[in-house]
Write a structure and sequence with these properties.
Phosphorylase Kinase, domain 1; Transferase(Phosphotransferase), domain 1; Leucine-rich repeat, LRR (right-handed beta-alpha superhelix); six-stranded mixed β-sheet; 3 domains; alpha/beta; seven-stranded mixed β-sheet
Length: 514
Amino acid sequence: MPVKFLSFIILILFSSGVPSLSSLPTNPEVEALNEIREALIDPHGELHNWDLYSVDPCGFALISCNSENRVKILNAANKGLSGTLSPAIGNLTSLTEVYLQKNSISGKIPAELGNLPSLGRLDLSNNNLSGPLPDSLFHLTSINYLRINNNSLSGEIPVSLAKVPKLSLLDLSFNNLSGPVPTVQAKTFSVEGNVLICRNSSKGYCAAIQPSSLDSPPNASPGKQKSHRAAVAFGVALGCTLGTLFVLALVAWWKKKQSKQMIQDDYDHNHAEEMMCLGNLKRFGFRELQIATDNFNSKRILGKGGFGNVYKGYLQDGTVVAIKRLKDCSHNGESQFQTEIEMISLAVHRNLLRLLGFCITPSERLLIYPFMSNGSVASRLRAKPSLDWNMRKRIALGAARGLVYLHEQCDPKIIHRDVKAANILLDDYCEAIVGDFGLAKLMDHTDSHVTTAVRGTVGHIAPEYLSTGQSSEKTDVFGFGILLLELISGHTALDFGNKAANQKGAMLDWPVAG
């Protein structure tokens, strides 16, 4: 079967009917995020997986999406970023929240931020931004929280500020702003620390207080001592009453919290017990994995992906393992965790990655695998010395056996959906092991395809899957064919160059000799 499988792949790859991958459209939001990444300086690699060739940005670090897979939140606060903020941020039209505070971003605030109709919260505080405040910011109809304090902004505050309908907090303190201050509707408003405005001003907004308190009430008349004492007594009584109510509410809240925690613990325990039945997996303790990875030391990272990092770990018995730590327990992360558990428990084969165990806490999800000492095929293709032809043939046949097992011998069959060199691992004997089942789908043998949101890596995705959303074993076959070409040529599917042959771009765009 593997020989027929390989022959079928080669026939598909070199037929004239294969469309050009370089002509396939990329996601405009992915393009916008990559323009933002290119304008920023990211010394700590926080934006490492913002890949121009991704199908959608929902697996990117620091990004949250809405139900339509559009970018909803960008949260890169306190990440050591510098450089400038690209105007391309205005192309993320579904953004509702942007948090970039406590970085070292410089340059002007892009006027294109005013193109975001749903933007409700924007925090650019504590950066090195300069230039004027864009008038477009105050034309946003949904903005209610806006902090641009502790920068180096200059010029006058736009008059349009007075017309912002939903603004509840506006902090422009500690800049170099000048000129008259428009009347604002925000409940909290401050221009404190702007010397050109507040040097000789006693206005309330220079003291960072509520606008409703700018006009101080007149002092009480000293002649009305009785009413004053009555007011004090009433205030004391009211304070005691409110204090008692607060204590009672605190006790009730604490009991409710304890009850919720017990429910959560029961859920996690029952959830784990259910998983214990899948493939006789071991449940690891979180502390055990902390020790194994030196408290998840960054030096132990083997790889990074959209759902988290993979660490090298040493268990107490000396076993070397790879530990995948999901970066969040949101819907997407939980779904990926469940998928890997279910798929790997169903599929047991010498050419498929074996799951050793898992760890569940209220805030953590981890998967434990055997350590693959020879890394991935992608890393070995770039390493020296290069793989010899016999080894490349063994890798191709091993990966083919694993895929044939998933497609023909599992019931229901499993569609991997992300076959590529980075997901083919090599054990101690350089035997090919198909891994990373986070995007896999189950499919009945009587079905011809399953329709899903497109996932995978551009350059490895079958064109018909990209255009229709219909995946089947044929989409895996296409990805395997690209893997074969990578094994034969030693190049990656996209973004490579061969100056001697003047070849660059998508692998399938190479001219075929003869």
